[in-house]
Specification:
Blueprint: H1 9-18, H2 36-44, E1 63-65, E2 68-76, H3 78-95, H4 101-115, E3 128-132, E4 137-141, H5 149-157, E5 170-173, H6 179-186, E6 192-196, E7 200-206, E8 209-223, H7 230-244
Parallel strand pairs: 3-5, 5-6
Antiparallel strand pairs: 1-2, 2-8, 3-4, 6-8, 7-8
Helix pairs in contact: 1-2, 4-5, 4-7
């Protein structure tokens, strides 16, 4: 059995961005942790292509729609459901309620969007729009990429109406948003729009044993840019990874 890999969050993003197989790396951090500089050192070395992972292809059900690539996939939220219980009490003291599933999804959309694609420019402000109650409630959160999940959840609970002239870079539509609401927000040409479905419990089999899953269907619209189709595909992959490994979402 291979030993577990220990990567810093930045190193993990560098591996995905550069297509580096982390199994080919030797970490220079504490206790052999793989750091971002280890990834960049390998990527800059001659012949590193032998350690390069293939660029992720579009998922079979991804489609091109005008200037957008559309990805439809499900993320297993079982880890998030298990993780949220221990921090519920602290959330109750700070927010008057625990983080909602929507808070985690919003944070994951922002983090995946700034990792790749048109919103990845260093220091760029990312304005987030949350669409709830089937489109009846809209909450604008400026500069969301620099805010923690606590900040996002706190501002969402204040129901901050988008100020005049607010233009969203990323839009997250909660469960039940009608097609016309999604179309209306796409017409404003955000870089990313995520539409959330309702979770459903499933039981799968792994290693001959039943495993409980909590599947969340998502539809992700990523605007195509100068990077071609690779960047939107990586945004979709990063979003699913973050939702299925949600402890990263608690970090700034």
């Amino acid at each position: 059995m291979n030993p577990p890999l220990h990567l810093s969050p930045l190193a993990r993003r560098r591996c995905i961005r550069l297509g580096v197989d982390p199994r080919s790396l030797r970490g220079s951090g504490p206790r052999g942790r793989i750091m971002a500089k280890d990834v960049e050192r390998l990527a800059a070395s001659p012949g590193w292509g032998k350690s390069r992972l293939p660029v992720p292809k579009l998922e079979p059900d991804a489609e091109r729609r005008g200037e957008y690539l559309v990805f439809r996939f499900s993320a297993d939220m079982a880890q998030l459901a298990a993780m949220s219980a221990p921090i519920a009490a602290q959330c109750g003291r700070l927010l008057g309620g625990r983080y909602s599933l929507f808070d985690y999804i919003a944070r994951a959309v922002v983090k995946s969007s700034v990792s790749f694609g048109p919103l990845s420019a260093e220091g760029r402000s990312v304005h987030l729009l949350l669409v709830e109650e089937r489109g009846a409630v809209e909450i604008g959160i400026p500069d969301a990429a620099r805010k923690s999940i606590y900040d996002l959840a706190f501002e969402a609970r204040r129901s901050a109406v988008p100020p005049a002239g607010f233009r969203a870079d990323a839009v997250v539509c909660d469960t039940g948003a009608p097609d016309e609401v999604i179309e209306r927000h796409l017409s404003a040409a955000p870089a990313v729009l995520a539409a959330v479905g309702g979770t459903s419990p499933k039981v799968g089999i792994e290693c001959g044993r039943p495993v409980s899953r909590l599947l969340l269907p998502l539809t992700l619209y990523c605007r195509r840019g100068a990077e071609g189709d690779d960047a939107p595909g990586r945004v979709a992959m990063e979003l699913k990874t973050l939702l299925q490994n949600p402890v990263v979402l608690l970090l700034l």
